[in-house]
Amino acid sequence: MTDIIASAKTLRPMLEPRAVAVLGASDDPTKIGGVPLRYLRDYGFAGKVYAVNPTRDTVQGMPSYKSLAEIDGPVDMAIMSVPAKLAIETAEAAAKKGVKALCTFTSGFSEVGEEGRRMQRRLADIARESGMRILGPNCLGYFNARTKLYATFSTSIDHGQPRVGNVGLVSQSGAFGSHCFVLGRERGLGYSACITTGNEVDITVAESLAYLAMDDETEVLACYMEGCKDGEQFIQALALAYERGKPVVIQKVGRSEVGTEAAASHTASLTGADKVYDAVFERYNAFRAQTPSELIDIAYMLSGMRRSGKLPGGNKVAVATISGGAGVMMADAGEEAGLDLAPLPEKTQVYLKELVPFAGTRNPVDFTAQVYNDFSVVTKNFDAIFRDGGYDAVIGFFSSLLYSERMSQKVLDALLPVRKAFPDRIFALSVIGPEKNRRRFEEAGFLLLDDPAKAMQTIAATLEIGRGFARGRRTTPVVAKAPCLQRRPYNEIEAKALLAKAGVPALPERLAASADDAVKAAAEIGYPVVLKIVSADILHKSDAGGVKLNLANDDAVRRAYDAILSACTAAYPKAKIDGVLVGKMISGGVEAILGVQRDPVFGPIVMFGLGGIFTEIMKDVTFRLAPFDEAEALEMIRSIKGFPLLDGARGRKKCDQAALAKALANLSVFAAANRDVLASIDINPVVVLPEGEGVAALDAVILTV
Amino acid sequence: MTDIIASAKTLRPMLEPRAVAVLGASDDPTKIGGVPLRYLRDYGFAGKVYAVNPTRDTVQGMPSYKSLAEIDGPVDMAIMSVPAKLAIETAEAAAKKGVKALCTFTSGFSEVGEEGRRMQRRLADIARESGMRILGPNCLGYFNARTKLYATFSTSIDHGQPRVGNVGLVSQSGAFGSHCFVLGRERGLGYSACITTGNEVDITVAESLAYLAMDDETEVLACYMEGCKDGEQFIQALALAYERGKPVVIQKVGRSEVGTEAAASHTASLTGADKVYDAVFERYNAFRAQTPSELIDIAYMLSGMRRSGKLPGGNKVAVATISGGAGVMMADAGEEAGLDLAPLPEKTQVYLKELVPFAGTRNPVDFTAQVYNDFSVVTKNFDAIFRDGGYDAVIGFFSSLLYSERMSQKVLDALLPVRKAFPDRIFALSVIGPEKNRRRFEEAGFLLLDDPAKAMQTIAATLEIGRGFARGRRTTPVVAKAPCLQRRPYNEIEAKALLAKAGVPALPERLAASADDAVKAAAEIGYPVVLKIVSADILHKSDAGGVKLNLANDDAVRRAYDAILSACTAAYPKAKIDGVLVGKMISGGVEAILGVQRDPVFGPIVMFGLGGIFTEIMKDVTFRLAPFDEAEALEMIRSIKGFPLLDGARGRKKCDQAALAKALANLSVFAAANRDVLASIDINPVVVLPEGEGVAALDAVILTV
User: Fold this and answer.
1) Domain total for chain A?
2) CA B204 vs CA A50, A230, A631, A635, B137: distances in Å
């Protein structure tokens, strides 16, 4: 974490410069080199601003410097808006001048072919050699809302400056970042800063997130990303945000096949498998949004919550509405989003019935439009719900009521005492109306969401993030003691032996070199036994006739041994055969699959799923970053759809989930300890026996790099 | 269908009255009885308007009639806004006056207890006896946008009259209907009419939909419902809309457990199982929206499409963007929504590369912000995409570009020729900006969606509806020839025999009354065989020791017979035993479950799923309304997640899907033919054998009412 804090601190001159120069400043205030100059001059930035343009004496009425060198004081940050062919010399000049941060609009780098890539490498060298941080190239710039530092050529500032607030937005894509920014602005979101990273020759999304995580003005991090190349740095940034109690919501694109293809052609970089990001986000409590509006809605909720205090740590939500139908719909959406719509206590329900005789009082509470006859009933309803129900969040549905000034005021007056009495809970309203009236509610501490069904999803996301903080930091198990993986082939017996040493148990087994040997081994292990060919050259053992199950006596073992050898020799005449494995035959239990894959960006990722069709047809699997502890392993186990099968469904015995969790966690530690050597592990199947009887790996393949 | 057309026609006086009276008209233009009078007077309704209030001489400056009877001409429609205690006499007076339609705001009926229910039954009697149609009670009224007939006390009209358009909105809930109406109005939706049905003492959602389906001004039907009591009428309404080519999008609430509970307490009516609605919607091509904003977005798309022509019948979509990131995200969302993002032809990609050298050209097309240097490139890009790609829909992402007047105009000029050249395809834009600029694009025939990811879902929904029309009406098989089910218990042999007659094949089997009998039967059937106890009193045959599988010879059969009888007699001493079934033993194939449930509203519903965990843990099942044909049965089979198992996954043989479809369709016909007697059928398992080998029901339970 020291690394990311140190490198994030170097972004400070970029976000908080005292003197700024625009390199390639244009006299035309609508051109790329003209827009930021105009913003800096007109919108109240308090620092020094210099225009640099070698061909002019003045730019937009300001004196123009022929070069950076001509400027007589220090320049903390320079905006570079020069043609690509001048970019390198301009950047060199900036470094020489002692500029601390260079914001590079210029495009025509890695996105346009080999020459561009070469130039981009040169830019990277300049950054590394000089210590000058470079944003971009090919980015839309950034802004600091508080200081009115709009270092961007996006015209979105022209049609509305952002409200100053506590949301920091980081986007890899410029156009998309500005789209999200505008969506948020229309939504009434208050921003601290917004950074677009473009080609990321130097400054990354991770560093930007880390900077904002340390920034006192920023309390919520919203992010759009296509992928990252430095997994460790990204993880550190998320971990830092978590430590600082800053919730993170991210839209990461490229999760579909077509999308991944498009992302590859767009970013031309190795950015890790998409499913691995889910594992990373899960570990560090970052919430993955699926659409820009979801990103903005969740950021909006978090922003409001953070203004008023902590996030709640539970999952209990109450709905109160003037419309029974809306209540039903919100209950549907809430249940599907995993919320706990626990009923109100009986005595509270009795009380609510006294207030409105024909109200629905369970939860959702339908206090009906009757409340319009006596607004004190609104107060009493919400007060009772908050007071008696122990809900983490309460949402009221008031349809399009805010369109009426009069009603708007009455409802606000009725709800304010409740808001004040329970300042630490989420108090949301699903209501539509003009911005002016919405703002009055927002300023009073209410969170406003228009669509009642989406509102439930947004609340669910917020509470999930809150629970992630309440749960506390995940412990990372020590990996030092894990057994060591050599860079060499492992046959099945060796693989299982090594994994058993690592804490993934297998059954007793022996390697036999002859039929007699096999009979002797079987006697030691105890009947019934299974025989399997052992050869790194024979992958499909069963197909080759290399497996014989359920052998009950010496004679059967002897015949099986001979049959296996002759079948395998016939099928694979050139295979190097290590011998025949004699193992304990067990029946019963549920088959699971444990696996490890090495992700190019994030290292070893552990997979868990049930055997056969569950994994192969239903794709019912889950992934986590290695290493993790048993508690997290248990979360994995419980998260798959087929979990009931391990939990005693259909009259089965409950399986030994504790042993399975232990094996999974041990596997993750082994994988992490050997991350440099390990390519993949496939333990398929692992039999999960009834409670107390443990688990056993029946087959295992380990591949090294 | 004749029925629904006839009854829908009787709604005409309600929607197109020449003379309207407000009963209980209030002098206060903000009160429930005052608002509609003010609307009728001030907003341009061209018909006659009478105010009726026995206690006043004038109401809002209009002469007040003491009673309806005093009015000297005919009154087609009356709005009733009187206290509950006056409702019955007022309705009677209206019927006597010859009023054709009564719109009843009055609340205090079935929603408030026994006395209210009694009054509501009386209202229903008045409607039936007089032929006067009654809307409500406890409804928010309705409007006809074209004639400015605002028969509602919703103040939502005050803050903005609806644009006149082609969307008809029907809502059971008043508050929620008005919420949807306002959402749509903010979205720029044009309405033909909007009807809220409240307690539905007489006029139902179904009749309202049917009326609008026949209304020439209405081209798109949007609906919010909690449930219906007359399944046949609802089905007829959807079928009518389909016949008339009017797309229907419905939000039906109550799909979750909490939601269903809330709906039950809210509507206090038997409204059918929620999953059955999915089957109904599927059959009649109604699209089920999950949130109000989805409902409105889809209605918006359909509305725009219907203005410009037919809905496309395919699923091919192209995305073209100024932002690579947005393209990736839209590809993700599109693939997840099931869209076919087929790549552009090679030669078109070459052409697009010539236009913008570093563009992404596959699909999504990323023509980059470079196009702003030469807007003719925008024209050329979209023209090539439409011309060469054969896409049903094309969507362009332009971020927040519409905020700039100048850019807005340039893009509009660039896109217009393409819109004109391909008028029959969906041309959507994901873009944000002020309403004025959006409207200019909309008037030019573009469909505007703000969130790019949601836009893909909306397009997918629209295309799904289009394909439903392109596919043509589903054929309903003739049910007359199906065998007849008696109202009596059926044991397993009888059930399978009857189902076999209905076209759900079983294996050869005999009922044996003695061990000798069983041996004889086995010889006829051919070894190996299975023996099973036959008794309507023994439900769990295996648990009782009543099943013996895989018997290979006479001796085994004899022993099994005796073992079964003694085990079952021990376990169920009082059971009436019909004998022992001797059946053919088969192995292989995939196990499926076929079932029928009788829904209280919609009658027999057929279920299909795979056996065991697929149905019980993964809930991987699908439902359709009986009867249906083999083509629809095949759709069912293909729609489950486990379908690959029937289609040759994991090295299996491909299963006999045709035979399975035939059995499913036959079952549906049998169920429909016996709808009055049938309670449920459970055929579990049905073994689906390899292609050409058919299917066989291995067990079946039929229950009658």
Assistant:
1) 4
2) 71, 61, 54, 48, 11
Ordered DSSP codes for A562-586: HHHHHHHHHH-TTPPP-EEEEEE--
B489-524 pLDDT per residue, tens:
898 999 999 999 999 999 999 999 999 999 999 999
Three-class secondary structure assignment of A195-247: EECCCCCCCCHHHHHHHHHHCCCCCEEEEEECCCCCHHHHHHHHHHHHHCCCC
What's the pTM value of the predicted model, to 2 decimals? Answer: 0.91
Q: CA of A91, closest CA in chain B: separation in Å?
A: 24
Asked if the C-beta of B357 comes within 8 angstroms of chain A's C-beta atoms, the answer is: yes
Instruction: Enumerate residues 6+ apart whose C-beta is below 8 A from B406.
Output: none
3-state secondary structure (DSSP) of residue B536: coil
Q: Is residue B528 in some structural domain?
A: yes
A435 and A466 part of one domain:
yes
Closest CA to B330 of A254, A615, A39, A307: A254
Place of tokens 């009236």: A437
pLDDT higher than 90, residue A9 = yes
Same-domain pairing of A373 and A346: yes
> How many residues are recorded in chain A?
705
A675 & A605 share domain: yes
DSSP state of B375: T
CB-neighbour burial class of residue B196 (10 A; exposed 0-12, middle 13-18, buried 19+):
buried
Distances A208 to A75, A307, A562, B655 between C-alpha atoms, Å: 21, 22, 65, 55
Q: Tell me whether residues B325 and A360 touch, CB distance under 8 A.
A: no
Residues from chain A contacting residue B331 (CB–CB below 8 Å): 256, 258-259, 261-262
B86-108 pLDDT, tens digit each:
999 999 999 999 999 999 998 88
Domain containing residue A428: 312-471
Hunting for tokens 């058919």 — which residue is that? B694
CB pairs under 8 A between A and B: 268
> B335 and B463 share a domain?
yes
Contacts of B561 (CB under 8 A, 6+ apart): B512, B514, B515, B518, B531, B580
CA separation for the pair A140, A160 (Å, rounded): 17
Residue B499 included in any domain? no
Among B120, B258, B590, most A C-beta atoms within 10 A, so best to mutate, is B258
Q: What are phi and psi of A608, to 5 degrees?
A: -135, 140
Residues A661 and A576 in one domain: no
| DSSP class of B156 | G
Domain membership of residue B488 (yes or no) is no
- Per residue in B516-568, pLDDT (tens digit) is 999 999 999 999 999 999 988 887 888 889 999 999 999 999 999 999 999 99
Inter-axis angle of helices A114-130 and A84-97, to 10 degrees? 0
> Which residues 310-329 of A are in CB contact (within 8 Å) with B?
321-329
Residue A622 shares a structural domain with residue A552: no
CATH of the domain at B530: 3.30.1490.20
Query: Can you give the CATH number for the domain in which A398 is found?
Result: 3.40.50.261
Average pLDDT over residues A614-620: 82
Same-domain status, A232 and A350: no
What residue spans of B588-693 are helical by DSSP H? 613-616, 630-639, 657-673
Q: Over the stretch B54-91, which tens digit does the pLDDT of each residue have?
A: 999 999 999 999 999 999 999 999 999 999 999 999 99
- Closest partner CB to A403 (pick from B159, B328, B407): B159
Q: Note whether B315 and B296 are same-domain residues.
A: no
- Backbone phi, psi, residue A252, to 5°: -110, 120
B397/B100 Cα distance (integer angstroms)? 51
Chain B: nearest CA to A275, how far in angstroms?
Answer: 13
Is A319 contained in some domain? Answer: yes
Q: Does residue A224 sit at the B interface (CB-CB below 8 Å)?
A: yes
Q: B140, B277, B241: which is closest to B465 by C-alpha? A: B241
